[in-house]
Amino acid sequence: MTIDWKNDPVRLDHVMLHSAEPARLATFYQDALCMKATTGGTPFLLQGAGRKLLIDSGPSKTLGFGAYSFNTDTSLNRFRTTLEDQGSVIEPSPSPLFGDSAFSVFDPDRNRI
Fold first, then answer.
1. Exposure of 96 by Cβ count < 10 A (0-12 exposed, 13-18 middle, 19+ buried)?
2. Is the CB of residue 59 less than 8 Å from the CB of residue 47?
3. Are 100 and 111 spatial neighbours (Cβ–Cβ below 8 Å)?
4. Which of 23, 74, 76, 84 could bond to 70 as cystine, CB 3.0-4.6 Å?
C-alpha cells in the first residue's frame, strides 16, 4: 500500500530529549527559544509558537523519540497497517501527550518514532 502523503499529511508533533540534567536543559530552551514550561517536573513539557518539546531524565545528548501526528484516525491506522505489512514491530507510544491508539516503531538507526 502506498500512502499519498501530499493529500494525507503527517506532521512532527513533538520530540523528547533526554538529559542528565533535565531542569537545566528545560531552562535553556525556555530562555533561548522563548518556550514556556507547562509542567513543573519531568518530563518537562515546553511549548512555543507551533512547537512542543518534552525533556526527561536519561543519557544526555540522546533523542527519546520523535512523535508524529495525523489529521484523522483513519490515516493513523492506514500508516500502522503499512508498517505492519512491511514487517515493522509496532510498540506502544512512549508519549504522554498521545492517546491509547498511538504507537511507535524504530527506524533503521534505532531512533524511536
1. exposed
2. no
3. no
4. 76
> How do beta strands 62-70 and 10-19 pair?
antiparallel
pLDDT tens track, the chain, 113 positions: 556 666 777 899 999 999 999 999 999 999 999 999 987 788 999 999 989 999 999 999 999 999 999 988 888 998 899 899 999 999 999 999 999 999 999 988 999 99
> What residue has cell string 534505532?
110
Please name the residues in contact with 41: beta carbons below 8 A apart, sequence gap of 6 or more.
none
Q: Catalogue all structural domains in the chain, each as residue range(s) with its CATH number.
A: 10-104 (3.10.180.10)
Contact 52, 97 (CB under 8 A): yes
The CA–CA distances, whole Å, from 53 to 5, 78, 96 equal: 24, 26, 12
